[in-house]
Amino acid sequence: MAGLSVAMRGLIAARTAVMAAVAAIDADMRRMARTSGACPRLMTIPGVGQLTALAFVAAIDDPSRIRRSRDVGAYLGLVPRRYQSGEVDYVGGISKCGDRRVRTLLYKAANVMLTRYKGQLRLKDWAFAIARRSTTRKARVALARRLAIVMHAMLQDGIKFEAA
To answer: Global pTM?
Structure first.
């Protein structure tokens, strides 16, 4: 480090500080996920990790606030947007209302379940059937919406995910 300029030493020090902060935040997330009663249960779902579980629990907060689990998709903006006027009835992409981060994390969890998980799951087979009929993107969105429904039901009932 003797031959490095002052600017390079400053960049190295800044990078070291940022990496230490990232490590501290990661350790805090791991601790919060472990101490939470709901996160370990949600993490039994293939593709759902600490960040997804923590974000979902934070977004839903009190599961009894949403009466039916199928309404969670609308709460997070994972339902089709509709435009109706006169004789026009257009069903578009997702509405994107609600928490954008949770929606993104559920989409990524669905992608992991479809592409990386090698086990047999009925949810995965259901999504692949949608992909054959339509597109893979629509299958991922549908699977993300279904994951939100399953996760909400798990929070309400206090059960673990059973791969069937």
So the answer is: 0.82
